[in-house]
Each structure stands twice: as C-alpha cells, then as structure tokens.
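Homework-ish question, so no full write-ups if that breaks the rules, but can someone show me the predicted structure for this set?
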Amino acid sequence: MFKALESVKYKKPPFILLRDADRKALFESGLEYNAPARGVWNIVHMGLLVPEGHQVYVCAQGCLRGVALTVAETDQMDRLSWVSLSEEDMFDGTLESDVVDGVAEVIEKLPGRPRCVLIFLSCMHLFAGADYEVILDQLREQFPDIDFVDCYMTPTMRETFSPTVWLTKRMYSLVRPLPLNERSVSIIGCERETDAESELVKIIRENGFTLRDINYCKTYDEFMLLGESALNISYLPTALAGNSELSERTGARALHLPNSFDYSVLRENYTRLCEALNIGLPDLSGCEARAEAALSKAMSALSDIPVAIDFTAVTRPFELALMLSRHGFNVRYLIADSVGEDAAAFEMLRAEQPEIKLFSSVNVNMFSAAGEQSEPVLAIGQKAAWFFTTDNFVDIVSNGGLYGYEGIVKLCALMEDAFYNPKDRRTVIQQKGWGCSCNAQI
Amino acid sequence: MKNVSRILPMYTADTSGVCSALYELGGMTVIHDASGCNSTYTTHDEPRWYDKRSMMFISALTEMDAIMGNDEKLILDCVSAAEDLHPAFIALCGSPMPMMTGVDFEAIASEIRERTGIPTFGLHTNGTLPYISGASQAFAAIVREYVRRVPKREGFGVNVLGMTPLDFPLGAEVSVKKWLEANNMEPVCNLGMGSTLEDVKQMTSARANLVVSETGVEAAEYLRRYFDMPYVFGVPAGRGFAGKLAGLLRSASKEAAVLPEECLAYGEAADTVVIGEGVYGASLCAALHEDLGINARLLCPLPAEDIFYSHTNNTCLYAEEDIEAFLQSTRPAAVIADPLYKFIIPAGTRHIPLPHLAFSGRSFQRSIPNLINTEIKEYFK
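A: Not a homework solution, just the prediction itself:
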C-alpha cells in the first residue's frame, strides 16, 4: 500500500512521518473515505445490550437503513422499530407528535411489552429544536409501566459528544439509585465482557465482591441492580462520561482505569482499585514478568516483520506502539485520525520513533491504498489489515475485552497466532460489530 | 401510521441510489453528510465496494459548518480531492441536514465546475426518499452531460437503462448482453453496470432503449425527447417473456414508451403476489405466466409509473401496515418477495424468497438469483 501512495505528491497527503505530526490536528480535514472494515460497534449493537429493551429510531430513511440492517444481520429485528421522517415533517408542526404517536403505535403492535424503550432522535430533531421533554412526558403518561429514555443518533454533532459517548450516558441513565452495597462493583460502558482472567476481574471477584456488567445481564431487573454498586469502573474512553453521570446519580464512587500498555499506569490503576475496595494490593511482579515473557516470545516469533497498528483495535494505539517498539518490534505504520487519551505516549513515540509513518483512515487518497500487498506486514486491527492488504492480522476491536498485564499476554499470543495463521480477511473484517453474530452473505 | 414500521426494514434511500448508479463511471460522488450515509451505502448497498475501487466520499459535515452554512469548505474539499484524484466528473448530493439548512447544490456544483474545469452536477437528494429517485436523477444527469448525437450503427443497437446492483445481481449485465446478442441485437451501453463513460457517449448510435427498472425512466425519456430513441420497459426474465420482449424491442416505436402487455395482464385471477420494484416485478409476473402458467399480481412498494400500481387499486402500498393488510385481505397462495418480508406473510401463505439488495442489503446477496433469459422453473417450483 505504502509504495502506491509514496509515489504521488498529494495536495492532502494520506500519511505523514510521525516526527511531523501535530497531535492537535494530525491531518487536514476534507472529504472522507469509508474503508470496508466493519468490526467497530455502532449504537444499535450497544442498545441491544439493554436486556428486554426495544429501540425505536426516528429519522430519515437513509439514516434508518443502517440501523435496521444491523439488527437484520444479527437476527434481532424484533428488537428495533422505526418511524421515518419526511421533509414535510420538519415544517408542519408535527415533529413531536409524530414521535409520540409513532412510538405508541409500535408499542401497541409489539407481541409483548418491553421493559424499556430507547427512542433515538436524529440531527433533524436537534436542528428543528424538537422538545424532547414533551415527547417523553407524554409517552410516560401513556405507558407508565415502561421506562423511556431519549437517545441520539446525531453524527453531525460528533464534535460535541460522539454518538457512542452519548449512548453510554443515556443507557446507564436507566439505572435507578438503590441502597448502596459495598460488596457490589460494576464495570460500566463496555461492549463486551472483560476477560475473566484479567487482574481487574480477578482482584474484584477473588476478594468476594459481586461484579456487575451489562454484558452479564439477562434481564432488565439484573441490569437495574447496577444501581446498588458502591464502585463503578470504566476503562474505555467512551465510558468515562457515562460512568461519572451514573455514579453521581447513585452515589457510587467512580473510577476510570484506562486500559493501558504502560506498566506504571497499570500499577497505578490496581493501586487505586484496591484502595477503593479497601483491600491490599496483590503482588503484581509475577503479572509483569508474564507480560515481559510474552513480549519476548512474540518478538522472537515476529522478528523484524513490519507491524501496522490501527486505532480501532485498541483504545491507546500510540501507547501500544511505544511498548512494542521498546521491546524491539518493528512498528513501522500507524493508522489514526486523531490522538486520544494516550497523548503522552504519542509524544514519546514521536521522539523515539520519528520515522514511523502515520496514516489517516479517512483521507480520500486512501481509497486506492488497498490492493496488492507490497511487503509482508503484521496488522493489529481490521483497518490495518485492509489498508496493508494482509491476512496476517490480529482481529480485535476496542481492546477485545482484554485488560491489564493479562491483556498484554493475550495480545502477544494473538500477534503470534496472526503471524503464523492467516485469516479470511474478506469475511472477517466485513462483519459488523466485532463479536456479534452476523448472518450477512459477505 | 404510514411512516411507522414495527419490524420490516426500509428500501434504501436516494443517496445510495445516486452512488450505485454512478459507481462504475469514473466520477467522484460526494454525499454532503456527517457520516452515516456513506457507511450505510458502502456496507449494505454496494456489493462492489470491497473489490472495485470507486470515488464515493462524504463531506464529513460538522455541526458548526452546518449552522454557519460553510459551503466554501465543501467546495474547497471537493476541489482539493479532485486535484488529487482526477475524476471524470463530480456529483454532489445531499442528506437530511443540508435539506434543513437549504444548501444549494446546483450553485455549489457550478462553483466547483468553474474552479476545476471538471463536469460537476448537483443532485436533489435528502435521504428521505427511496433509491429510485436518486438513481433516476444520476442516470439522467449523466445522459444530459455526456450524450450527443453520433451516427447510428449498422446493427440494431440497444442501450440498457436502469440497471444497478440495488435491483440486479452482479453478472446480470453480462446476461442481458448475451440475451441481446442472441437475439441479433448489439449492446451499446448498459448504464450503471458494465459500461464506461465512453459507452455513454455512444448511446445515440443505438436504435432503442430497454428500461429495466424505474431508475432508467428519466434518462430514457430524455433520450426519447431529444434523440428520438424509443424505449421499452422490461427485464428479460425467464425464457418465454424474454423472447417476446426481444421482439417488442426490435419493433419499438419512438412515439411512446412501451410496456409489454404480458406484464400486468394476469392480475385478476392471480393467486400469487410479487412484491418488488415496478419494472422488475411486472416482468417477473409476465415470466411466471409465460414459463410456468402462474398468474401473479404485482405489489410495487416503490415509486413507479402509475401503471405499475394497477394490481393494488392504483395505489402505491409502501407502508408496512398497508402491505400487511393487502396480504391479509387477498390471502394469496404464494408471495414472492424479499426474505425479510417473512414477518408479515399471512399464515398459510407460501413465501418464496426473492432477495432484493435495495431492501435487505447484503443479508442475502449471494442468494439473489439471476433470472435473465434463463429457466426459472427450479427457482419458483
């Protein structure tokens, strides 16, 4: 891929050297390309995590299609309905009443009463100044047995709050305060279960605490029990705001323990966790040694094969690149459009590995990037696999549930596996919602 | 309510129609939108996206640019991308937000054309209409921009209008070409699948146009009005109807559009309902009768010429509640429709799945049959 791009002088280059990157604006904005790597979860996948919930989207036909087919591909069409908006709806004074009447009609037609309804309003409602409170008040009056929550599919507003952050806040707003239980701990805002073998989960469980997570909940009542947790933990950047809001409402303590590839951050995380749980910090030296051994083993296997990392695989791609390069891996390519919570690692990496090539995933000139494989590359992430045309890739999204030292151990194993065992890239990366069932004929 | 759906998905929108129609023509298509339109199109509506490169982009519209009406950013971004990518043309189309802020796409297109020297056109989409609207506009825009009068070829040349993967499986363009050749006609341009801009420029060397979906009507009308080219509606499905359609195409008059009488002739005594796009669905009704003796009626839930609603009391039944009520009241023995219609098929009625990409996206894309000039008995037995 790189050779194809390197030979052209672009007005808006799709890649730069890391030494030339400004973390506040990696690339100039412009038209955007959409790579066929679909593993990142969307708001529909997230909404489906609410047990016994029903989603209703109210927006234009074009916007509805993506959400409707997301549930079609996961065989959960019975959990989503929609009300389409037309141009006339914007101007005839029925914007709010259409939502109320449409949602009410959907509820009446459902074979059973949902415990809650997530109503997704759109950019059109925001721009038209729709009165959400009126909508919710009328529906709550009409259906007092159902919890309603306003959610937002407003990509135009993504520079304020991303749709994922918004939805995390709204989903957990359903949880009502309960008397706090000091032995109950919740993990907030994850799209999948956290690895049960991670130190995070083991410390909580092995010390006799009950661990709650929306991913464990089979019923709405179980989900409501998150309201009794005295400690709420988030580690994905998109979950931070939701955790803060939930914890403030329930009176729980909120801890944000970012999923890091920096041992000092991990140690600090576990120290904070143990303090919050009022337990002693376990000896982590063995965990760190295991991570080091796994990195050495993977390094021996991979040798000097170029490694490409994309921002969809892990939430701290620059920190991962820094860790790997410090352990001798040939990290040569990064794909990221912005710098997130690993800004410090970005600066260190820029100083230590200034020749790393940093690619935009959406730059228009990337549309022709994938094609013939120009060199063997081990990719971490689906977009990296696509752009570098390699079947040797680690297939994870948003850390894949991995966490901590154990997460590093397992990521190393995944890298080794990817090195030895090519994947069916075409099928794997086009499946929507990593880890979800997907019946689409890709 | 007509705009409420409990469980059925919706047909894809006008923006996807534009992109699908222009995909193979070497241009750059820009949807003025935040993000969703392009990912929905490239994920669910475009089976060529993984294997075949095409310049389909979004403008990544932001809150502030929408509020402030920052059209200059869109213009500059298009100009910059055009300088990097050298598209043959640029097509701009809109989504809900530009509709609300009143973006003037024609003016923006004019500005981009001026600055780049590249043919540029603005299309009136807003994400609230079905794909038929967008694809129709796109085909018509291409024809208006590139078709000029050229000498007629010696043989009986035919253009195919309205073929996109939204309505036809990949490979249909090859089948229709073979069908034309087998009937001593020369394929000139299959607008949308399998042809280039150079083929478009040769369109008036043909003697007739075959309109295989509603998306081709606007372009066909333009060619009839300005280049005296007759057109015939029809998809050469099955064997018997395909043969009759070939004959009709050869004898087409430039005076009017022709719909083969077989298409909608057997609705009265029908025990089968076909749900689908108008031209395709009506052609299938004809093929079912010609090849299998099945009387079928058409339920077209999409924009179409009025004649295509003649089996549903001259009304377009597009709402879930209306389609469900129609099937409940008519209680057909069989319904031929996309697999996702399964949720509203009455008990006791047989559902013969006929996947339609414009409805169920990629969910069943490998199961979409190519019914052109082939035996259909096996599929509908």
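Now go work out the reasoning yourself. Hint: The CA atoms of residues 391 and 425 of chain A lie 5 Å apart.
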